[in-house]
Protein 1
Amino acid sequence: MVPLKKSICIIGSGIAGLHLAYALKEDFDVTVIERHTTEEIRSGRIMSTQVHFGSTRKRENRFNMPNWGEQSLIESIHITIGNQKLFAGMLQEPALSVDQRLYYTHSMKDLAEKGVSFRVEKVDKERAEALLDTFDLVIDCTGKNGPLFPFPIEPKLSPFPTPQRKCIVGYFTGIQANDPLGVSVTVLPGLGEMFEIPALTEQGPVTILFLMAIQNTELDAFKGITNAEVFTRKMSDAVQKFFPDVYKRLDVETFKLSDEKSFLQTAVTPVIRKPYLMVDEKLVVGCGDSVFLNDPITGQGCNLSSFCAEQLYETLIEFKHSKWDEEIGKSYWNRTKQYVTEVTEWTNAMTEPLPEHVVQLLLQGAQDQVKANQIAQWFANPTKAFEAFFSRLNV
Ligand SMILES: Cc1cc2nc3c(=O)[nH]c(=O)nc-3n(C[C@H](O)[C@H](O)[C@H](O)COP(=O)(O)OP(=O)(O)OC[C@H]3O[C@@H](n4cnc5c(N)ncnc54)[C@H](O)[C@@H]3O)c2cc1C
């Protein structure tokens, strides 16, 4: 007789939940509970920006996730400090940014067609506990709205009591792409940063402008704006004033939001938690932002969620036929802790003024294309960034 597959409930179908569902669906009986319908997500507000670097795209491939083709592939990272463009470093493997509204809904429909059960429900804490009785394992993938379970905070990795930046994001048309096509990072010391990201949406290619403003500075100029036209005008003014390199490529006549809901303002208080817990002698694990929530400043959230999803998958496969208890949770945390620490410490450092030795490395990148390429790789392989910031090794 074929043994029954263990049952897993994933709460939340964001990056973490989706990567897990694809990875786990062959070996386990997977149910995903998501508070929004696909139609609500598709026609709703943008949720984020996102750049899936090479290792994340390899995992998407490994788990047979949807393929987004070759359009808008991101080849490079452009770095500017103040008004000084330093370099464009080439990535070793192309990256891709797909609007999460499109990525999530397409993946949810595809998974449902492949036999994964979906339920639409906003799970509360009581209900989350009740799910423990029904499933062999519950995985909390509720993102920054979560967690639903009290995973303990790791104080050393969670130094900030408040957000370090205001996040101001719009998806626009009317900007000529940079060359080579890439993410442009502009650091304005004392004010914040701007990320320009080429992305794919349901409407076609767009340019994301993502301002990270230090609170109560001149860049923090969008307070209270909820109207799309006012937001667009304000963004055009901010680009003209602070980001002349981008403004040169902005066509004032055609510059507009790609749709009426393609803008958002938010702020994130970073917090890292131990991603497992015993509740009434049953193991619960967390994956993605629900347990590893960093400031978006280094663009690692999706990539870290995907990395941890793969590590959780590997853990569950390794112990597929054992009892799932606290040891499984420990094993998952042992597999992820070092990488989570490196991403988090680098990200937290990026919210502070850049250390002098890092500024010197960036200046070297302006003189030396090999160095520039190595710095671009920090974003694709944050372990390299961690070493450059903290080990004082050359990149
Ligand atoms: C402004 C901004 C910019 C960012 N830029 C980048 C970037 O450039 N690159 C990058 O890699 N990362 C970026 N991030 C981070 C990235 O968006 C997240 O790390 C990533 O989406 C985390 O995935 P997740 O699955 O953990 O959570 P989410 O993507 O938030 O998904 C969580 C899911 O759970 C569902 N859910 C929540 N609560 C419940 C509940 N109670 N019941 C049922 N369902 C529930 C939600 O509806 C959602 O679908 C950015 C984030 C922000 C806010």
Protein 2
Amino acid sequence: MIKRVFITGGTHGNEACGVVLAKHFMASPELFSGFSFDTTVMLTNVASIGTNTRYVEEDMNRCFFKADLDDPTKTATLEARRAKELNAVFGPKGTSAAADFIIDLHNTTAATGVALMMSPTDELGHAIAAHLIALDPSVKVCNWNATQADWPMLPSVGKHGMTFEVGPVPWGVVDGAVYKQTRRLVLAALDYVEAHNAALARDGPWSSSTVQVHSFVRSVDYPRDASGELAGVIHPQLQGRDFGRLARGDPAFLALDGQTTIPYTAPEEEVEELFPFFINEAAYYEKKTAFMLARRIDRPVQVAKQSPQYELS
Ligand SMILES: [Zn+2]
């Protein structure tokens, strides 16, 4: 049974659509009454909201490894300290006291549309995703790196959780269409949680479904010169093509002469189809990531059939 839900905004202070939506939700408690679970809405990296930057000293959305949260010496940055405070509010991570479900609101400069990022083993997260895809077929699902045992993202503190990533939006900008779509889908996610609780309480009905998942494979850096400066930019034919197929030899980068195409060069042994996302995300230049690559898999999931009370038109 899902009892404690958190909706968080401002984990990156310049992702303004999520910040404004969280503030709206905080001022609108009536939206969250009448459910069988409690919903708390809060701002997380408050200092970075004040400075309208992604972070002040360190990317807070890389501060939630359980080992770091449990390490009392990991307090060097403002964000590391804030992560520990937040872990006390909706964690502690990995314990029975942790929140049941966390939605962390983000925006990206990449043309991802709505992309829900979650643990590959999060059954409820994928069921929510299936529900949202039924309402809005443009919604995409990404899995955090399945080869890792733990992740440093804020929503990984909850028993279930997702990064609610929406783009493209420039830093500090609230895009009305993105705002409207995000608000509708976040509230629809809560409707699904209610249906999930109802199905648990009456032992069904559940239906078998599948969700198309983009499973992280690796990151690709920009071409760089010997001193690490950019030697190429995202190719115009790749710009904005998040979740389209990228095949060996396709244009990936444009050299700084503005003429020379630098093709995508896959390793010899790589024969599977891969799909790029987070193409030209502004925050990832410093992380040496021009785009990420995912493989597509169809993941089975059990979905609570909606009771009429929560059916959405
Ligand atoms: Zn973010």
Protein 3
Amino acid sequence: MQTVKIGTTTLPAVGIGTWHIGDDPVKRPAEVQAIRSAIDHGARVIDTAEMYGMGRTEEVVKEAIEDYMRDQLYIIDKVLPENASHHLLERSLDQSLRRVGTDYFDLYLLHWRGTVPLAETVTELERMVAKGKIRSWGVSNFDVADLEELWRLPAGQHCVANEDLYNLDERGIEFDLLPLMKKHALPLIAYSPLAQADTISGRLSSDPLLQELATNHQVSIYQIMLAWTLRHGGVLTIPKAGNPTHAIANVEAGDISFTPDELDALAKHFPKPTSKQPLATI
Ligand SMILES: NC(=O)c1ccc[n+]([C@@H]2O[C@H](COP(=O)([O-])OP(=O)(O)OC[C@H]3O[C@@H](n4cnc5c(N)ncnc54)[C@H](OP(=O)(O)O)[C@@H]3O)[C@@H](O)[C@H]2O)c1
């Protein structure tokens, strides 16, 4: 399994996404099992948020992880922008901690930028680190200008990761954002790495090159898509799987490596942008 360093922690590079987990009560047992199967096969990182199901997803995470040692896991949670203020952040964090059933998060992200000044949010995040409620903090849906603004703040350099949309359909961040993050050794957390099961463009699951690579590696095209997000290092990829078989396949995709020829073929077939793109989000 490939690894990624976030802050001072080295982690398996395939994590567990949780958006929409818990939405359908009928699916809940399989979803709990999917999270457990991913952990049992080597995943350590769980990505969740107060936004997901308005807290319901965090409660499913709690159920899934109750039999695991807390320090075996690396839990990422996110605060909504409207709660990222002096008055509300700690309350939001406490509620998330209670729903997940833990007394700290390894990483706490500002989910996206809102109207609360960044300096106020960073001050609160730093205060939560000092209180031991979070081990580190980061951001999500930040573009180049957002990171530059962040880094100008006194504690802005303490940010340990930026979580953005990244998959074969959405390579916009490769033009300027990813190079900037590489320069600052800031890892990317790649969200929707499977293009939401190819529901964005709909062109990936029937793509002949992806099918050929999947056949050659004896894996699925989704595993190829996932491995592609990890090809240059410095990336944690967080597929969501409510199906335990998918969850295991995703962890196993962390072992796939491509030859230079395969990477060339993918780069030609899915070209990266040659100009600045607006930051894509979901
Ligand atoms: N920070 C942000 O703003 C933000 C935004 C979006 C997402 N995220 C995070 O990123 C995570 C992943 O993104 P996402 O949930 O949008 O989409 P995604 O991971 O790209 O795709 C999830 C879909 O792919 C399917 N799938 C998973 N593994 C598969 C496999 N091996 N083979 C075939 N299909 C497979 C899932 O089906 P089953 O469920 O049936 O297995 C589900 O329909 C989220 O869950 C969330 O934690 C963060």
